[in-house]
């Protein structure tokens, strides 16, 4: 498959009264056409900021995209002018945000908000946009769609508002959908419905997806490949089965160890990751995870490892990943 999005050495920082926050620290990744990439890590690790940087939605100031290249259809999105990036947002690349209540305008009807991008990007008339809006609401499973167009966001439940956000994101048939923890505020049943909708629409429309989450359980049945982030770095990347079956980074191992199990290991105790993430203002030397890592050596505190191949399509940023692999093999035996 051809590469749709190619990000290289993306670095984003925020200038605050307390100092410079190094939010994204040289992130590189790519997304192929029709692929689903999971972006996983705990809160504050740089998942959302990296995607907002790709879309050039970082508030500047206090934010600043310091370095990087974001290639999409032969163009570097960090270098195009404001008019060109606006023609990409919502049209070729769309984003679904975490909280639909704050993402939707409370004083405009749902129909008006969906129609806006159709009129702007596709040049539809108001009548055409309204007709297409009904189709989009039906596509995401909202009953009596035509009658709901004149309703306001507060008249929808949380799950229905998120469906509206997905309908808005898909209105121009984007090639890439970025979903920023779209199921976090929803109960488990509604989460499953939203995930099923996205999977079905991906099959029907053939779009690529970047799904941001802190929950590995959510991404297991959705992604083709996973990038694990920590302290603004991508520390492991591999196909989804490799991440779950053969994690090589101690942090990834810790994330998997903190997920409740329903299989033969369900009686095993959850093992939390001890310690706290590093201060992004005073970044530590060496590996950012070394203070919390049980496999650390002296080298870990002195030099930050780059991503290196640890298997087929499996890269990891750890000096001691082979020790992690051996320890896992010994415990399994």
Give a structural overview:
This protein is α/β, with parallel strands linked by helices and 333 residues long. It contains twelve helices and twelve strands. Helix 4 crosses helix 5, helix 5 packs across helix 7 and helix 7 runs parallel beside helix 8. The longest helix has 18 residues. The chain is globular and about 65 Å long. The relative contact order is 0.13. The mean pLDDT is 87.
Strand content is 15-25%
Query: On the 0-100 scale, what is the average pLDDT?
Result: 87
N- to C-terminal distance: 38 Å
Name the shape in a single word: globular
- The value of Rg in angstroms is 21 Å
* Unreliable segments of 5+ consecutive residues: none
Return the string of H and E elements: EEEHEEHEHHHHHEHEHEEHHEEH
Share of helix, binned: 25-40%
**Main β sheet profile:** 8 strands, mixed
| Structural class label | alpha/beta
Task: Provide keyphrases for this structure.
333 residues; alpha/beta; eight-stranded mixed beta sheet; four-stranded antiparallel beta sheet; 33% helix; globular
List the helices and strands and how they pair.
Layout: E1 3-16, E2 19-32, E3 36-40, H1 47-54, E4 63-72, E5 75-76, H2 82-88, E6 93-96, H3 100-103, H4 110-122, H5 126-139, H6 145-148, H7 158-169, E7 176-180, H8 188-205, E8 208-213, H9 216-219, E9 225-230, E10 233-239, H10 240-245, H11 250-257, E11 308-311, E12 314-316, H12 321-332
Parallel strand pairs: 3-8, 3-9, 6-7, 7-8
Antiparallel strand pairs: 1-2, 1-4, 4-5, 9-10, 10-12, 11-12
Helix pairs in contact: 4-5, 5-7, 7-8
Care to give the gist of this entry?
This protein has 333 residues and is an alpha/beta fold. The chain is built from twelve helices and twelve strands.
């Amino acid at each position: 498959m051809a590469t749709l999005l190619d990000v290289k050495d993306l670095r984003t920082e925020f200038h605050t009264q307390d100092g410079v926050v190094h939010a994204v620290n040289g992130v590189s990744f790519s997304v192929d056409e029709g692929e689903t990439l999971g972006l996983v890590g705990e809160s504050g690790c740089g998942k959302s900021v990296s995607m907002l940087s790709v879309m050039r939605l970082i508030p500047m100031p206090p934010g600043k995209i310091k370095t990087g290249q974001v290639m999409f259809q032969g163009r570097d999105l960090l270098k195009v002018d404001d008019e060109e990036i606006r023609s990409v947002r919502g049209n070729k690349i769309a984003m679904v945000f975490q909280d639909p209540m704050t993402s939707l305008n409370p004083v405009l009807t749902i129909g008006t908000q969906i129609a806006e991008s159709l009129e702007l990007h596709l040049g539809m008339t108001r009548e055409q946009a309204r007709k297409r809006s009904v189709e989009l609401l039906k596509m995401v499973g909202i009953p009596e769609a035509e009658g709901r167009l004149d309703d306001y966001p507060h008249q929808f439940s949380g799950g229905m508002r998120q469906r509206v956000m997905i309908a808005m994101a898909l209105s121009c048939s984007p090639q890439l959908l970025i979903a920023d923890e779209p199921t976090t505020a929803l109960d488990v049943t509604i989460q499953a419905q939203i995930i099923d909708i996205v999977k079905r629409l991906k099959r029907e429309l053939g779009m690529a997806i970047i799904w941001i989450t802190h929950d590995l359980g959510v991404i297991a049945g959705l992604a083709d490949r996973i990038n694990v982030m920590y302290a603004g770095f991508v520390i492991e990347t591999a196909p989804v089965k490799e991440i779950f079956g053969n994690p090589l980074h101690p942090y990834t191992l810790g994330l998997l160890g903190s997920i409740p199990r329903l299989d033969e290991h369900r009686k095993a105790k959850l093992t939390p990751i001890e310690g706290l993430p590093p201060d992004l203002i005073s970044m530590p030397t060496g590996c950012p995870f070394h203070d919390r890592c049980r496999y650390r050596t002296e080298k870990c505190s002195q030099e930050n490892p780059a991503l290196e191949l640890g298997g087929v399509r499996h890269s990891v940023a750890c000096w001691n990943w082979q020790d992690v692999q051996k320890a896992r093999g010994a415990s399994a035996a």
